[in-house]
Design a protein that fits this description.
The protein is of the alpha/beta class. It is 32% helix and 19% strand. α5 packs across α9 and α10 runs parallel beside α12.
Length: 402
């Protein structure tokens, strides 16, 4: 959708919209199972919304394209992820409240494990606790590279933020994460001539990090990805005419929300904490983005049963409490698929339901991949179209044309 058209057409309303994102929701049946994780889960509350609403499968980016969490969320917010591209570093910086200056280059880092040959054996260093991550970041903050100021901050578990500050830096660098085990970290490769000096400085940092962490098993090396600068984009509240709030426990998702201009509400570590935050802010906002992370983590760990259990937790503990607040429109979906059978993000379309009193109901009676494929939203609706549909169901879009 053209944002200028949406700006002209949006109108005030007292209707409230909730976007519930169950991160990594989509899945695949494992060899010895005939159902996906979502289909195997006991989800009476999501099934009820599906039966009373309209369903389908959405594509975060495009056919066959496996999305990262950043572009997948931008698509859910209505931003074309091809047009609005930003690296994971910027999102990490905003998520932890780092004051990213013009010209700064940020990267998302993973502490990882390498063996005696220098090959990566665990890209997440056993998911070390955040306290360990913070202590390791303190070590890395002792690194000195001539001509550049370096900041290292913990994000969550094995994730950290790296920011470079100097004149004439460029974010046009390839990731150092090989995205698989059994291979060494990649060199920071410049993607343009303007990035050659930046790549050299990042290489200096990585070399010193390797030496600094050599005795810190399992987190004895770093991987860097998503080099980026902070962009200047249209703001979500201005586009849609909404007082918008984000409730997310993980910094990256707070970062992408802040990037598009949502108010990021302080919340605790648990889903109960997030629900209490939602209740406390209910009268102050028109739109709530509510993020549930750990479903995706179970998929990345290849743990089918834990992913099923976490989907059930969201259905039993989150959905009824949202509905108790009497929202007018609920969009429930994932940002992307993370099948435990693949233990990684995938290109598969993601189940989505939209519930409101104005939905044109379809035949879908349960919330799952095979059920949603015959839903009224279609088997491959672009994710960027979900926000305008939600707005229309909330009575927030005027008639177009005479």
């Amino acid at each position: 959708m053209d944002f200028n058209i949406i700006k002209r057409l949006h109108k005030p309303s007292d209707k409230k919209v909730v976007l519930l994102v169950l991160d990594g929701l989509g899945g695949l049946p494992e060899k010895d199972k005939h159902k996906t994780e979502l289909e195997a889960a006991d989800t009476p509350n999501l099934d009820r919304l599906a039966a009373d609403g309209i369903c389908g499968l959405h594509m975060p980016v495009g056919p066959g394209m496996t999305p990262g969490s950043g572009p997948a969320h931008l698509a859910l917010f209505g931003y074309d992820p091809i047009q609005y591209q930003v690296g994971r570093g910027t999102l990490a910086a905003l998520g932890v409240g780092f004051d990213l200056k013009p010209g700064d280059v940020a990267a998302r880092g993973n502490f990882c494990t390498i063996d005696a040959d220098g090959d990566v054996t665990d890209r997440r260093a056993g998911r070390i606790p955040t306290e360990t991550c913070a202590a390791l970041c303190e070590k890395l903050n002792g690194i000195r590279v001539p001509g550049v100021e370096i900041f290292v901050q913990p994000v969550k578990e094995y994730r950290f933020l790296l920011v470079l500050r100097a004149r004439n830096l460029s974010p046009e660098l390839a990731d150092t994460d090989p995205q698989q085990t059994g291979k060494p970290p990649l060199d920071p490769k410049p993607l343009s001539e303007a990035a050659e000096k930046t790549a050299y400085r990042v290489s200096e940092f990585v070399d010193q990090a390797r030496d600094t962490l050599k005795d810190d098993h399992p987190a004895n090396m770093v991987l860097l990805r998503g080099f980026s600068e902070k962009p200047d984009w249209p703001a979500f509240p201005d586009i849609y005419g909404l007082r918008a709030a984000a409730i997310a426990g993980y910094p990256m998702y707070r970062g992408v929300s802040k990037l598009v201009g949502m108010d990021v509400l302080g919340t605790g570590e648990t889903l109960d904490d997030q629900i209490e935050t939602l209740k406390a802010a209910w009268n102050d906002y028109d739109f709530f983005y509510f993020h549930v992370k750990k479903i995706d983590s179970a998929g990345e760990d290849g743990d089918f049963d834990r992913k099923v259990s976490l989907i059930e937790d969201a259905d039993h503990d989150v959905v009824p409490k949202i509905m108790d607040l009497n929202p007018d429109v609920v969009v429930a979906t994932g940002d992307h698929s993370t099948p435990s059978a693949l233990a990684y993000h995938s290109w598969h379309p993601v189940p989505v339901l939209i519930w409101s009193e104005h939905c044109r109901k379809d035949p879908v009676k349960m919330f799952g991949e095979r059920a949603c494929i015959v839903g009224g939203l279609g088997p491959r609706i672009p994710a960027v179209e979900l926000m305008p549909i939600a707005m229309a169901n909330a009575g927030r879009i005027e008639k177009f044309g005479a």
